[in-house]
Amino acid sequence: MSYIALDSIPDKEIFPGFIAKIMHTPSQNLTLVYVRVRAGTLLPEHAHPQEQVTNVLSGQLEITIAGETQILEPGMVGAIPPNAVHSARAHTDCYILDVFHPMRSYD
């Protein structure tokens, strides 16, 4: 088992307005991304081969998956299938946890 303090992970801007702390599990099967998103920030439509689960920890995040839109609030989770076209827009400042399988690289 491995343990890590989130404060020890450097911030990385993965998209304008999306500041992330990225970690991979020791097995290299999962990527966890803790993201602070500025209110009003739009993540344009995109797709990737990884399955993604987005958990909103604070704020309101609008997610559109394959044309279906939902506003997620704390305690809500969005599941994005592999290769599904999706986008997001922050209604407020948000703090989210994205989990990807298999591992996702942000290089």
> Largest sheet, order of strands side by side?
1-2-3-10-5-8
Largest sheet: 6 strands, antiparallel
Number of helices: 0
Task: Kindly report the CATH topology of the domain at 50-107.
Answer: Jelly Rolls
The residue ranges in which pLDDT falls below 50 over 5 or more consecutive positions are none
The top level CATH class name of the domain at 50-107: Mainly Beta
Counting helices, strands and paired strands, the structural category is mainly beta
> What is the mean pLDDT?
96
Overall geometry: globular
By CATH, the architecture of the domain at 50-107 is named Sandwich
Report the CATH superfamily of the domain at 50-107. Jelly Rolls
How would you describe this protein?
By secondary structure, the chain is mostly beta strands. The chain has a domain at 50-107: Sandwich (Jelly Rolls), CATH 2.60.120. It has no helices and 10 strands. The chain has strands at 12-15, 18-24, 31-37, 42-46, 51-58, 61-65, 68-72, 77-80, 86-90, 94-101. Strands 1-2-3-10-5-8 form a 6-stranded antiparallel β-sheet, with no helix packed on it. Strands 4-9-6-7 form a 4-stranded antiparallel β-sheet, with no helix packed on it. Strand 2 (18-24) and strand 3 (31-37) form a beta hairpin. The chain is globular and about 35 Å long. The relative contact order is 0.28. The mean pLDDT is 96.
Question: What's the short version?
Answer:
Residues 34-100 form the Cupin type-2 domain. The chain is mostly beta strands. It has strands at 12-15, 18-24, 31-37, 42-46, 51-58, 61-65, 68-72, 77-80, 86-90, 94-101.
